[in-house]
Write a structure and sequence with these properties.
Blueprint (H helix, E strand, L loop, with lengths): L22 H10 L2 H7 L13 H6 L3 E7 L6 E7 L5 E5 L2 E4 L7 H4 L7 E8 L4 E12 L7 H4 L16 E11 L6 E5 L13 E5 L4 H8 L3 E8 L3 E8 L6 E4 L2 E7 L6 H8 L2 E8 L4 E12 L9 E16 L5 E6 L36 E10 L4 E12 L6 E7 L7 E7 L10 E9 L5 H9 L5 E8 L6 E2 L6 E2 L3 E7 L3 H13 L7 E8 L8 H10 L3 E7 H4 L4 H7 L7 E5 L2 H13 L7 E4 L4
Parallel strand pairs: 26-27, 26-29, 27-28, 29-30
Antiparallel strand pairs: 1-2, 1-5, 3-4, 4-7, 5-6, 6-7, 8-17, 9-16, 10-11, 10-14, 12-13, 13-16, 14-15, 15-16, 18-19, 18-23, 19-22, 20-21, 20-23, 24-25
Helix pairs in contact: 1-7
Length: 614
């Protein structure tokens, strides 16, 4: 069977000559008004994994993933969670992935797999809020392809050796896309060291066509779901949805629905549903290791009637068949925090839950950002350049954060926007961040078609009140000693940025100064900007470079010097093997710089990136 790639659909990308979106995705983008933004984000899509960017290592490190597959005989779509151990997910080449049978709990689905079966794999690091989406087709099972009685009897036992890396389900990679971290509720896995296998092959399994009362309680307690969809002649897709408990509603024993919050605007799932309503939904109870898998039909309700806070549409899923398997895995997860993007979910009494899952009242004595949401009041506006302004907000209690982390704010009823719009910006000032500060600065760049950013530039006035929904982020080189709580910094630090991507790096530089860490690190800062007049905090950075001998600052003006090249980067970066590198900017810039850094000797594990293209 031949499955088309996305370069055979419609809407040619003028830069690549390929077609990044199919007709259903384009229809969804038009309904939501995101066609322009989606066109820009298409540059981040790839037809293969990138080993230089450590995509293979990312997969191999994951203990959990979700995989959607299509039964071509029935058209049913199923989502299978993968409960893995080290090496169970492996990239053989840039275009081929092997999935160990030891991580696959659902053999019925795999009985439908044949060469050419559409597949989609969502690798997700729940702790770091990183997810990679990989679409393609099955190449089949290697070796005996598990065509023995042990497979039929739901037991793999001795027929597959975990050390044999060629055995397993092979997936051909046709499309690779990193997804945004929004709505990922952060969790830390707890592995059962006494259990050699992650799958319980004797788990209780029940099949039915409607939800029992116990099933309904299971679903409504979940804060995460996985959805699979399929566009005929295009391929399958697997995606993630997150919120606060209760965001998934059971409307009948055969129907569930959930809000679709603001995402990146590409509409992979909704686009598939525009052309084919077959879908699969799976929920995993991270505390008990149980799961419910469902297949049926889904539709997008584009008419927002206000029943979901922060959503402009909903997906309604009609269940045709479900499988519940209790205690299917020995894996357990500890929830660390909810996503700061999660809107409040109204309970039956009309009250809501905050980002911690507690009642939305605020503890006035708390100084930890886990106590968000809270009111933030605008008290100062500074025009930094012709395109960037800094907005200072005051909150009612001190909040501790690390330099380079970002804050999320909720805007309500902006002209042209949804009832609730959540946006994220790096906190650019850091003098009291470690002990807690009640003033929060964000530096915001005006961008074409930037609904909220441009509203801030044009209409924000002193006294404006927003909701601070949380502070998060891993883009920081400054950490705290677990015992003494003193700040630590790498001995060799490379800060590489372009455009407004300078803000987390600027915050780290300011943090190093504020916490007197200049003698503990050698900082190489390189910033790329189109025009000299757009340089942010240029005089401050020049002054720091003159004052501190171990701080090197270089800017590249592309309108005069052209783009930053690998040769230039190699000349500017000392001791590449010892560097901890932090890269922030447009997606293409980060991808290219990651490749350059790896090729000049910076260990891939030491290259950290962060994007806000969502």
């Amino acid at each position: 069977m031949f499955i088309k790639g996305r370069n055979e659909t419609s809407m040619t990308d003028k830069n690549t000559g390929k077609f990044p979106y199919h007709q259903g995705e384009l229809a969804a983008q038009d309904k939501a008004g995101t066609r322009g933004a989606a066109s820009e984000l298409a540059a981040g899509k790839r037809s293969a994994l990138n080993f230089l960017a450590n995509h293979d290592a990312f997969l191999a490190a994951q203990s959990f993933a979700a995989m959607s597959s299509v039964d071509l005989n029935t058209g049913n779509v199923w989502v299978t969670p993968l409960f893995a151990k080290a090496g169970d997910l492996r990239a053989v080449t840039e275009n081929e992935i092997v999935i160990s049978p030891h991580s696959i709990p659902d053999n019925d689905v795999l009985n439908t797999v044949e060469s050419g079966t559409p597949f989609s794999l969502l690798g997700i690091d729940l702790n770091r809020r990183i997810r990679h989406r990989i679409n393609g087709v099955a190449l089949g099972f290697e070796d005996n392809r598990f065509e023995d009685s042990s497979f039929e009897n739901n037991s793999f036992e001795d027929n597959d050796d975990r050390g044999n890396n060629d055995r397993g389900l092979h997936l051909q990679v046709n499309e690779y896309t990193p997804n945004c971290p929004k709505y990922i509720n952060r969790r830390e896995i707890i592995l059962d060291a006494s259990n050699a296998e992650s799958i319980n092959r004797k788990a209780k399994r029940e099949e039915r066509t409607s939800l029992t009362e116990d099933d309904q309680g299971f679903i409504q307690a979940m804060d995460t779901l996985w959805i699979g969809s399929y566009a005929p002649d295009i391929g399958a897709d697997c995606n993630h949805r997150g919120g606060k408990p209760g965001f998934i509603r059971v409307t009948s024993p055969t129907t569930i629905e959930w809000p679709e919050y603001r995402g990146n605007g590409m509409f992979f799932t909704s686009g598939n549903l525009e052309v084919n309503d077959r879908a699969g939904v799976t929920l995993v109870d991270f505390e008990t290791g149980s799961m419910i898998q469902m297949t049926g039909r889904a539709l997008v309700d584009w008419k927002h009637d206000g029943r979901y806070e922060g959503a402009s549409r909903a997906i309604v899923f009609h269940i045709e068949r479900l499988v519940r398997t209790d205690n299917v895995t020995s894996h357990r997860w500890k929830r660390l925090d909810y996503s700061p993007y999660n809107p409040v979910v109204a309970d039956s009494d009309g009250t809501g839950k905050d980002s911690t899952g507690n009642d939305s009242a605020i503890n006035d004595t708390a100084i930890n950002h886990s106590e968000c949401p809270m009111k933030a009041t605008l008290v100062k506006i500074v025009e930094e350049t012709e395109t960037v302004k800094t907005f200072r907000f005051v909150v009612s209690q001190r909040i501790a954060f690390l330099p380079g982390q970002y804050a999320s704010f909720e805007f309500n009823n902006i002209l042209g926007g949804a009832a609730s719009e959540v946006r994220t910006w790096t906190l650019s000032e850091t003098p009291n961040s470690l002990k807690g500060d009640n003033t929060l600065d964000i530096s915001v760049k005006r961008v074409p078609n930037g609904l909220v950013t441009n509203w801030l530039h044009d209409h924000a006035e002193l006294g404006l009140e927003l909701v601070l929904t949380g502070i998060q982020g891993e883009m920081t080189a400054i950490t705290l000693d677990a015992d003494t709580q003193t700040p630590l910094v790498p001995e060799q630090l490379l800060l590489l940025s372009a455009g407004i991507g300078i803000t987390p790096n600027l915050a780290m530089v300011r943090g190093i100064g504020a916490f007197s860490l200049q003698d503990k690190t050698k900082v190489t800062m390189i910033h790329v900007e189109r025009y000299q007049r757009h340089l942010l905090s240029h005089h401050e950075l020049v002054r720091r470079s003159h004052k501190y001998p171990d701080f090197s600052y270089t800017n590249i003006i592309t309108s005069e010097q052209g783009r930053l090249t690998k040769a230039q980067l190699e000349a500017l970066v000392p001791n590449p093997k010892e560097q901890q590198a932090y890269v922030c900017g447009p997606a293409l810039f980060m991808a290219q710089m990651t490749e350059y850094l790896a090729s000049i000797g910076v260990p891939v594990a030491n290259i950290h990136t962060e994007a806000f293209d969502f």
